[in-house]
Amino acid sequence: MFADGVAPQVLNETLRIGTVQLCNADYAVLASESTKGPLWSAEDLTEENLEIADRTRRQGSFYPDERLPVSIRAALEDYRSSGYDRGHMTPSGDEPGVQAQRQSFLLSNIVPQTAELNRGPWEGVESAVRGWARQEGEIFVVTGPGYDPDQTRTIGAGRIPVPAVTWKAIYDPAANGMGAYVCLNTRRPTWRVLKTPWF
């Protein structure tokens, strides 16, 4: 699931405290006690897997990740009536087959996103990344939230922090190219592309 078999690194020592890495059928996450969600979600996105995903009808319900201790785990109740969508980091549309797709609905792969971002630019980013995977044959994708230390907005009894941004970084091993999208998690979301010439 990782380029050259190396998992993404969290450089901030404080953020590394209370984290658990979880592997699923087709993606991995680093779950965090401080966010009760992922710090990153990583996948090896291939054209072959997307062909299987295309034939798999999207289905699934969100559910808590019971592999995690309660202190790290988000609950469905945290999102109810919160005003935020449950935003996938690794999207269900990338996942090949029913089991992999079901695992994408684990709350350990979810962060609070505004409906305007989740159903707008973020959906466009996910589609564009799938297009590149189909074109290139294989890319590595790492997705995650970014938090503003001055922003204290949380949702639910579990006090799930709302990220200021969500981002998606892409590496193409064949072209040795990389780039990233960064999207503001607001009611009027904007996004930008950080790119190399490959993009």
Structure description:
- There is one protein chain.
- The model has no long low-confidence stretch (mean pLDDT 93).
- The chain has helices at residues 13-16, 47-55, 76-79, 98-103, 115-118, 121-136, and strands at 19-23, 28-32, 37-46, 85-88, 110-113, 138-146, 154-155, 160-161, 165-172, 177-184, 191-195.
- The strands form three sheets. It has a seven-stranded antiparallel β-sheet.
- 22% of the residues lie in helices and 31% in strands.
- It starts with 12 loop residues before the first helix and ends with a strand.
- It has a single domain, classed as Extracellular Endonuclease, Chain A, CATH 3.40.570.10.
- With 199 residues, it is of the alpha+beta class.
Architecture blueprint of SSEs:
Elements: H1 13-16, E1 19-23, E2 28-32, E3 37-46, H2 47-55, H3 76-79, E4 85-88, H4 98-103, E5 110-113, H5 115-118, H6 121-136, E6 138-146, E7 154-155, E8 160-161, E9 165-172, E10 177-184, E11 191-195
Antiparallel strand pairs: 1-2, 2-3, 3-6, 4-5, 6-9, 7-8, 9-10, 10-11
Quickly list its features:
199 residues; alpha+beta; Extracellular Endonuclease, Chain A; two-stranded antiparallel ribbon; 6 helices; globular
